[in-house]
Amino acid sequence: MEAGNPLLDDYVLALANKPRPKICFLASASGDADHYIVRFYRAFDAGRCEPSHVSLFRREAGAPDLRTHLLEQDIIYVGGGSVISLLGVWRAHGLDVVLREAWSKGILLCGVSAGSLCWFREAVTAFHGEPQRVEGLDFLPWSNTVHYDGEQARDRSYRQFLVDGLCPGYAAEDGAALHFVGERLVRAVSSRPHARAYRMRCVRGRVVKSAIRTRYLAEGLPALSPAAAGRRLSVAPDSGPAEVCPPTAIAAGARS
Amino acid sequence: MAIGGGGFGSTGRDHALDAYIAELAGPDRPRICLLPTASGDPKEQITRFNATFRRLGCSPSHLALFRLGDQPEVEVREHLLAQDAIYVGGGSLANLLAIWRTHGLDEVLREAWDAGILLCGVSAGSMCWFQAGITRSHGEPRATRGLGFLEGSNCVHYANDAARRPAYHAAMLAGGIPGGWGVPDGTALVFAGTELLEVVTGRPGCDAHRVDVVDGELVEKVCEARVLEDREPDLADVDPALAEFRAQRRRASGLAGGSRVSGWRHAGAEGGEVRRAGRG
């Protein structure tokens, strides 16, 4: 859903491995922002997939049975925003349980920013104020942080949290995506030539950061080994703050 | 202050209610903060709120929990506790409470309540203060718990949403929720502490109802609403020529009912003074 850059969208759709896969968008982390939902339908047009969305703020207008709708998808795509709000709203509607079912069923789960953090055991979010640790859904037994490029406070905090006992995990720069099969990372890809992902862990009190080979999607990809190409997949792309809150959506304008 | 529905900017009908809130909030540019959480922080609601309460002489602000990244300088707790009034917008009650809890806002609002800050809200923003409410957060109306600052239950859109009233009665008869108030759009319950002070409305004929179960039977009593004076917006912000034009038109159309008369007289006088000042 990056403006003018469909590389990650194409990658996700191709993983479904069928014509016109069903893809459902959850924009809960943005409060179901209209402009974001419109962007989703623009990026995932009905010519190449069967797009739908679920709004947890307007249940009276949507599909009455969320579980049935979500479990018949090929792909569930979670948008960015506030991961804390996201998890709160999901739990209020029992979506944490439904998504666990979807995951067990082999539905491709993917998301950007907050929609990436949510799948992990723990996440480091810097959405507002000091970076903080947040417990995620724990489908992936690692930690995760996004927007890893250029935010020094986030890097400092992630390192400190690792020293304090945060589980090992992955940091992704804007445009970089982590592709898991089951709990295992099978590769990192990116929609931008220099975007990188990193493996982060603490060894005897010292943080070790190792760059993961991140393949730029415009340059083509070798096929995954048969062992890696299982059905249980999760992609956790990250496409930067502009993806989550386009400049036109900044609320501060209303406060002056 | 718990409003059954409508409220700021809704087709202009509830201006009297907005003005009443501004007055309760206090003199001298009271600070009033909108929490639009229940509908996902839509910009349009924030804009409408700011325009309405700025025009009413308040100093409005908002906290959008979904876009806090855009308000990096704001400390949520400090900001809320520095307000004279906190106004909670409508939307999904289930989402509202879930999000507040994950952000710890339920505790901050309890502090605000203890500190005597005026808490008000419409629809989901009304029911949240009670022990229970009837929400459509999941589609069909169902009972859900609120923060419980106010005793009893609350059902909003009482005369406006055909499915809510029976759901409210059924939940109460089943013993799931305590007795409480059914409140229609445009009408508000005003509490001083936990005591109901009065029922007010901007829409004549829209009373609230007290509903209880007595000896296994449902008992519903009318709580008559005081009709608030429908005053014109403060003319200080309106072009004097426009104000005079409006006053003239009112006079000519003979629209004026009892409460409206004093409304435009007040408006006319203000307009006149502004005009004289302009000439001088």
Beta-strand percentage range of chain A: 25-35%
The third-level CATH topology of chain A is: Rossmann fold
Average pLDDT of chain B, rounded to a whole number, is: 84
Which strands sit side by side, in order, in the main sheet of chain B?
A: 3-2-4-5-1-10-11-14
Helix content of chain A: 25-40%
Instruction: Name the poorly predicted regions of chain A.
Output: 230-256
The percentage of residues in β strands of chain B lies in 15-25%
**Could you describe the largest sheet of chain B, including whether it forms a barrel?**
8 strands, mixed
**N-to-C terminal Cα separation of chain B, in Å?**
43 Å
CATH homologous superfamily label of the largest domain in chain B: Class I glutamine amidotransferase (GATase) domain
The CATH homologous superfamily of chain A: Class I glutamine amidotransferase (GATase) domain
User: What's the alpha carbon Rg of chain B, rounded to whole Å?
Assistant: 20 Å
Helix content of chain B: 25-40%
Mean pLDDT of chain A: 85
Q: Would you list the SSEs of chain B in sequence order as H and E?
A: EHEHEHEHHEHEEEHEEEEEEHH
Q: What's the CATH architecture of the largest domain in chain B?
A: 3-Layer(aba) Sandwich
Folded structure, characterized:
The complex is a heterodimer of chains A (256) and B (280). Chain A is built from eight helices and 14 strands. Chain A has a single domain (7-245), classed as Rossmann fold (3-Layer(aba) Sandwich). In chain A, helix 7 (152-163) links the parallel strand 7 (140-145) and strand 8 (169-172). Chain A has helices at 7-16, 34-43, 66-71, 83-92, 95-105, 114-117, 152-163, 241-244, and strands at 22-26, 50-54, 75-78, 108-111, 120-125, 132-135, 140-145, 169-172, 176-181, 184-190, 197-203, 206-212, 214-216, 233-237. With 256 residues, chain A is of the alpha/beta class. In chain A, the strands form two sheets. Chain A has an eight-stranded mixed β-sheet with strand order 2-1-3-4-14-9-10-13. Helices cover 36% and strands 24% of the residues of chain B. Chain B has two domains: 2-227, Rossmann fold (3-Layer(aba) Sandwich); 235-279. Chain B has nine helices and 14 strands. Chain B has helices spanning 15-25, 43-55, 76-81, 93-103, 105-114, 124-127, 164-173, 240-253, 258-279, and strands at residues 2-3, 31-35, 59-62, 85-88, 118-122, 130-135, 142-145, 150-155, 180-182, 187-192, 195-201, 208-214, 217-223, 226-227. By secondary structure, chain B is an alpha/beta fold. In chain B, helix 2 links the parallel strand 2 (31-35) and strand 3. Mean pLDDT of chain B is 84; it is low at 253-280. An eight-stranded mixed β-sheet of chain B has the order 3-2-4-5-1-10-11-14. The A-B interface holds A 29-34, 56-60, 62, 64, 81-82, 84-85, 87-89, 91-93, 127-129, 241, 244-245, 249-252, 254-255 and B 37-43, 46-47, 50, 61-62, 64-72, 75, 91-92, 94-95, 97-99, 101-103, 136-139.
